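Issue: copy button drops trailing tokens. Both records pasted manually instead:
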Amino acid sequence: MSINTHPRNLLVFLLLIFFLLNFSHPPLAFAEHNTSFDFPSFSFRNLTLLGDSFLRDGLIGLTRELGVPSSSSGTVIYNYPIPFFDPQTNITASFSTSFSFSISNVNPTSFGDGIAFFLSPDNQTLGSPGGYLGLVNSSQLTKKKFVAIEFDTRLDSDFNDTNNHHVGLDIESLISIETADPLSQDIDLKSGDMINVWIDYMSDEQRLNVFLSYTNFKPNNALLTVDIDLSGFLKQVMYVGFSASTEGSTELHQIEKWRFQTSGFRTVRPRIHPHNISDNSVLTPPILVPESPNKNHRRLGLGFGIAGPAFFCAFLMVFGWISMKKWRGIRMEKSFKAELVTGPRQFTYRELNLATRGFHSSRIIGHGAFGTVYRTNFNDSDTVFAVKRSKHAHEGKTEFLAELSIIACLRHKNLVQLQGWCVEKNELLLVYEFMPNGSLDKVLYQETEQDKSLKWVQRYNIAIGCANPDSNARPSMRRVLQILNREAEPVFVPRLKPSLSFSCGLLPLSLEEIVSDGEESKTTRSIDIKID
């Protein structure tokens, strides 16, 4: 009896075990967790800027900074959703936030409209300019769900504003539930000075307080206090951010720093170290708990539910990746062993890797049709070769086999001799005789690094070699005419043999360069090669 150990069968078997284990214990649920983050200054990390908002010198501008009146709206949103309601315990979180903002103007007579801090169930909040404060779209006033604290600098009768200088609580509407005038505490929203704000919502007391101050000290008395239950408006997760707008004014709205935190969720287990998701923001990871009344079962399910599937998934992916890679390598190696011809030496990948210093860029001496050519130096024998490394091992397999099987059998004084090959580590490598004098065209036009210059006698010998009466050593007349008319590239790129005579040597880069226009090439033997 034999067992099929094909990697795909093993993967199916492991997947079956995973599903059996994963569904053999009670379902898991996420316990909502308290969240906090702090931005002493701003960067693009963990923030999304929409509309006309911009970042400059650690500050966020929400509207355009122009010297002429214009209409503008902008939004900045914290990237990650924040839990505000736990359906397992029916608890709504309390939250507190503090930030600094300023409203300035190039033209003191051109103020309006304002800035708002908001909580929203979506992260694409970008509303219309003007009295809409960038919170809602003018054509969809009732579709937007949000909770916001507005700092308004314009009297807009459409939204029942009390004056042109107020702070208000807005819930799913721009008509404020309750407002207060900061001038009652000597705070001028239009002063251009940085104003510090503290907003606290106590879920157990169902009360929201808003504090304003020019200093860094939180006042004892709140500017705005509203007794309200927000549990009906806070979804399971919400996004937090700021928006601002202008209409026909030069008002500029800026945010300098921002801190936010939630509280009130029950602690399931001792809090683990928070996970830093940026340089200036911290988000506490969620905690998994099983839905079981038994405490021991809960602990067992918690540990198994987190560690078991995670470890198994990681093991499954690693095992599958290694198995498939090894399986493909074995198949390719067996295929090559059946197709490769005998003759040239088989090098090991380690030999060629050491001889080229890990295929370092400093060893590159040229680029062929299917790969890069490297200079190799073998320290033990002082032998120098040229190694061509295929660009794509799988895509170049057919070309590699054709070149290796046929060029290895060619014997011609003007052909650079193939010395060896290597098929390891998913690499296809050909080892050629090294041509130290470079290519003929570079020597003729003095483009070599050594700045060699051919003497007249040497040039004459080369010309005689190119005019060889042997027809097999010359291109056909049709190809010559095509070359002269610039309709085709030269058939052969000459390479200089490693001798002082500068006779011509040709590097066979492909079969087309060896056999062309019906001319036959002589080989030492005839072989049949089957290529998949």
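Record 2 (pasted manually too):
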Amino acid sequence: MFQIFRNFFKSKVGIVVTLGFLGLIAVAFASSDVANTGMFGGVAGGDRVAVVGDRTISTADLTQNTNNALQQSRESNPTLSMEGFVAQGGFDDVLSQMLSRAAIAEFAEMMGLRASKALVDSEIRSTPGFQGIDGTFNMDAFRASLRQRSLTESIVRDDLSLSLLAQQTVVPITLGARLPDSMARTYAQLLNDTRSGTAAVFPAEAFAPAGDPTDAQIQEYYDDNRARYIRPERRTIRYAAFTEDAVSDLPPVTPQQIAARYEADAVLYRATERRSFTQLVVPTQAAAQAVIDEVAGGISLEASAQSKGLATTTVSQVERPDYASTASQAVAAAGFAGAEGALVGPVQGALGWYVLRISDVAPVPARSLADVSDEIRETLVAERRREALNELTERLETEFSRGRTLEQAAAELGVEIQTTPPILATGQVYGQTGEAPAELARVVDFAFEMEPDRPEISELVPGQVFMIFDVENITRSATAPMAEIRAQLVAQWRRDRGMAAAGQAAARVLERVEGGASLADALRQEDADLPPAQALRINRRELAQQGQITRATILFFSMAEGTVKRVAVQEANQWFVVALDDIELADLDADSPDFLNTSAQLSASLGQEYVEQFVAAAEASVEIERNEAGIDAVRAQLTGAIR
């Protein structure tokens, strides 16, 4: 229910998470593919970007945090480049959050709070990226993770300490927050309010210039809006697949080799026996003996088990060593000692006390060398092929690292090199419908981390199909050349000019209405051909259910009764002037679900409001000194403006 309300009023949430956890650890160890898209320090402007109280935020800290934030953003936008991330304000957001987090930590220490070594140790042990395959902390995994991300233990500990101080200070603020019932009731009533008024629309096309812009105008527009035309990075990949046929020229298996393998594996070919059992497992020896006594009295093993709420299981065609590995040596010995049809037990095994009925005994005769010669030959050929493939792939990998080219390797393997069109990090073909060939799916991500003309090898089907590949060409993310997008620029220049003029017209109409004119009369005074004003009567809940929520409807349900406002709906290329005449509210009982749910959910949001106020106060309580030269240098290096 409250989702309806949230659709109308969007506010900042999750500040505890962004302030308490944005850091080297939060994202760097959440996934295994964090890319080092920048460098630590070493930029102009000094080695720090800010000083917060006694804490220094270094260029390395800002670079690493920005890289981590970019990786997190790529989870929802895989083609986002660093240039695009910075242009959209991501870099400034990261810096702001780092300053806030440092200010909170400084304030926490002023209040006497500490993040002890034991607490930091506990956080390290519980970090998934530092755990082994058994789920427990593993020092080798810890050190490997640090090496992979160019971090030191000191950096990790400092970052965790900062986050823990922020948590200790911020989290308690959110606890116990409760919105007064009177306010909760007002908001709950808004969940189903009905509003009446009038709206006038001002389409951009009604005000757009008719002619084309001058060269100077289009150049200025292009320069002012470069971030809107950033193209994602795309790469051309060359590749060739090969199979086990690449090592088909193997020496033949000799009779002597077959005989040697037969002798080495003699235990596999000697006479043996396979047996089938019906078994029942019970907790105690006494219970097992009781079952045996009942069967001796004429009841079947299955019936005896069923009368006790149990069930038998069947083991078919098993050899003694295999049965011993699942039951126990004692159970297997007893089962293979009895005659067919005999009842054996009780015998203690891995799961309890066993009662067995030997349902089948099948002797397996010994097999001579002549009997298994072909089988052994096939095994040896497969082993040789597998070993040769391993040697080939290891050799290719070594030779690639020493400068061997893809063409040279393909010529040796007798395979043809295929070349993709430019593709994006998502695997989609740039500028076209369709995706990269399916066989490249496993290597695209890696290909976007490679340098050009540095071949690699990948296993597509374990032990069967391999691929050699390299990156032939990289087109870095950059703003599209103006000449290539001139038509698009002209259309959007015209649209933006139209939106600006529509906004001015909306402002004129708004001023007339505020002066006492009706919206319809104020609209008629405009020279442009505009649609007539439209009467509105809208219920909030019905509107949300229909999914027709825009900036105009959000404004309509945010206004005070008797007011007039204007708003731009950019996605629709329109401005609106909206007049709200009347608000109808429904009465709510104290136990109304709308009231109770709204009270609970707004109380939770209230804690976030408290946090925002606290963060502002914490920042005001400590001295924050920004090094703008250092900040600009990090920004320039991340976006490639300096190398």
